[in-house]
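Usage

Read records sequentially. Each one opens with the input sequence:
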Amino acid sequence: MNAEAGARVDLHLHSTASDGVLSPTALIDAVATAGVTVCALTDHDTVAGLAEAAAAADRHGITLVSGIEVSVGHAGRTLHVVGLGFQPAAPSLLALIDSLAAARAERARDIARRLDRRGMPGSDMLGDLAGATVVTRTHFAREMVRRGLVADPGQAFKRWLGKGAPGYAPAAWPSLETVIAAIGAAGGVAVLAHPLRYTLSAGQRRELAREFRAAGGIAIEVCVGGQNPAQTEVAVGLCLRTGLEGSVGSDCHDPALPWQRPGRLAKLPAAIAAVWGRWQATPAGPASGDTNRDAASA
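and closes with the structure output:
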């Protein structure tokens, strides 16, 4: 579709299929209430919510682009890459999802063991989280809050789950090149998620953007939920220097949080090509791909 001036776009959203608080249906309802007309459900390492989200988008006349957010290991850091507009049942994507599911499961077990050793009931919490398609650190944090072990998720990360904390466990994420290739083979495009959240110098961030494009990456998230104008200007500069396209996304996990509200984003500057211009503005279902396969292997 053309990047219509009147379109309200949000291409980074999470549901209960990973670590969001709303079901795919409820999330799309919230997206519609916010006036968003083009969106992507980008759950962590799974496409399990896409079919449900597509049905809800159809009811609201919203264009849903197939999406996923994937954890990547690069230069000793964990990065996030958003895949958009792919075929959800493509073999390359399913193989990637299966490998990520294995890495997530092993990391969750490692976190539980580390918490157990420090007197925190990690294994017991993991048992209560068994129904989640993808278990993340956010799940552990919310479970700690539910049990009254910490005051809020922020405290859970600071005291127990953040890097350097007793319950932190590294993960064997796939490489940047592997993830971008899998998304591309599935007919999608790779977007570097929230580039200003990584602890990088200005030079390192520019080098990352160049490496991302060299590996086949297509776009950078320029306008992100909770980002200040100065950070947006930096992201704009990255796009202009590298020739990458721009994306926008709230990274919404909970619409009740004001900095994560769907569609509440700065406009992409006209000088940057909008990545959503690649998909036809046709409501109902992901703009690319069949969602009948609901990531049962994830």
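Summary fields computed downstream for this record:
- The radius of gyration is 18 Å.
- The longest helix spans residues 91-117.
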